[in-house]
Amino acid sequence: MAAFVKDLQGQFSPPTVKQHLAALRMLFDWLVTGHVIEANPAHAVRGPKYVVKKGKTPVLTVDEARALLDAIDTDSLTGLRDRALIGVMVYTFAPVNAVITMKVKDYFTQGRRGWVRLHEKGGKEHEVPCHHSLEKLLDEYLAAAGIVGEPDGPLFRTTGRKTGQPHALWQQDVYRMIQRRAATAGIATKICNHTFRATGITAYLKNKGLLEHAQTIANHASPRTTKLYDRRSEEITLDEIEKIAI
Q: Does residue 14 sit in the same domain as residue 118?
C-alpha cells in the first residue's frame, strides 16, 4: 500500500494523492465492517504533507461586486434572475450547487424577514436570514417571474427557449453567465462560481464580523475552512507594497 501511494505521488499533486488515499481508507473500512478482510491496510499509510493557509479562489473587491450587480440589465427576467442568483451567493456565502438546487419554497418569510433554505452536500439543510438587499433582489425576481404559485419548482430556472420547458440551471450555466456579466461590468479579474462565496466572507470580516459567525453562515464544519476564504491580508500586502516610493 505504501508503494502504491508513493507511485501516486509521482503522478499527481499532494491534494489529489490525499483524496485518493482517503477514498481507499473508506473502501477498506467498509470491507472490514463487512468481514471481508480483517484489517485496513491503508490505515497506517501516511499521505504527503500538504498545508493550505490561503485559498486560491479569486475574490472581488466590494466596489467590483457592487459594479457587477449594478451592471446587470434588470429590464429583462433573465437579468433579474442572474442578479438574484449572484446575490444569494454573496449574501449567504452559499456554494453554487446549493443555490441552483433551491426550490421556490426555499425562499420564505419568518419573523417578518425573508429566509433562504439551502440544501448542501451530505444532505445538510441550512437556513440563513436574508440581508435586506437580498430580499429586494429575490422579491423583484419572483414578482417578474410569476412563479410564487409553484413552490416545488426550481427557483433559478432556464428560460425554456431551447427545450420548450424550463428547468433548473446547471453549474456550467451559472459559470458562463457570470463570465458574461463580468465582461459587461468591465471586471478583469478571472472569476468563478466560488468567487462570490469568498467575496461575501471577506466583505463580512472586513466589516468587523466575527470568524465564528462567518463559519455559521457559511455552514462550515471548521473555522479553518472559512479562513481559506478570508482575503483581507492581500489588501494589507498591496497597501504595504505601495509604500515603495521610488
A: no
Cell 427576467 belongs to which residue? 77
Domain that holds residue 169: 67-190
* Residue 168 included in any domain: yes
CA geometry: angle 10, 31, 121, nearest 5 deg: 75
**Does one domain contain both 46 and 105?**
no
Q: Which amino acid is at 156?
A: F
18: CB partners within 8 A, 6+ apart: 47, 48, 50
Q: What is the pLDDT of residues 150-200, one digit of tens each?
A: 999 999 999 766 666 789 999 999 999 999 999 999 998 889 998 999 999
Amino acid type, 94: A
- Work out how many domains the chain is built from and give that number: 2
With residue 143 as reference, give the H or E element that holds it.
Answer: helix 132-145
Backbone angles phi, psi at 231, to 5 degrees: -115, 25
SS3 at position 131: coil
111 contacts: CB under 8 Å, gap ≥ 6: none
φ, ψ at 229 (rounded to 5°): -90, 0
pTM of the model: 0.74
